[in-house]
Design goal:
Shape: elongated
Largest sheet: none
Structural class: mainly alpha
Pfam family, one: DUF1456
InterPro entries: YehS-like
Length: 83
C-alpha cells in the first residue's frame, strides 16, 4: 500500500516535531495561507467526517516552505556567474 500525501505530511510533522503554528509559519514563507482548522482536518483519521485529503499543491507548498525554513532563502545568482 502506497503512502498518501496525508501520511507523508503526518510523518514529517512528527519527525520534525512541528506544531500547527510552525506549519502555518512555514507555509507563509511561500505565500501559502493555511489555517489551523485545515491542518486539523488533514491530520484526522480517514474515516472521520471532517477528514480532508491533502492535495499535491498543499504538500508541495509545505515542502518548498520547509526548504526555506531549514536552509534559508537561496541567494540570487548574478548574470556573470557560470551555471
Amino acid at each position: 500500500m502506497a503512502l498518501s500525501n496525508n501520511d507523508i505530511f503526518k510523518k514529517l510533522r512528527v519527525a520534525l516535531k512541528l506544531r500547527d503554528d510552525d506549519i502555518v509559519e512555514i507555509c507563509a514563507l511561500v505565500d501559502f495561507k493555511v489555517t489551523k482548522s485545515e491542518l486539523g482536518a488533514i491530520f484526522r483519521a480517514e474515516d472521520h467526517p471532517k477528514y480532508m485529503e491533502c492535495g499535491d499543491q498543499f504538500l508541495r507548498n509545505f515542502l518548498n516552505g520547509l526548504v526555506i525554513h531549514k536552509r534559508g532563502v537561496m541567494p540570487k545568482k548574478s548574470d556573470g556567474e557560470s551555471k
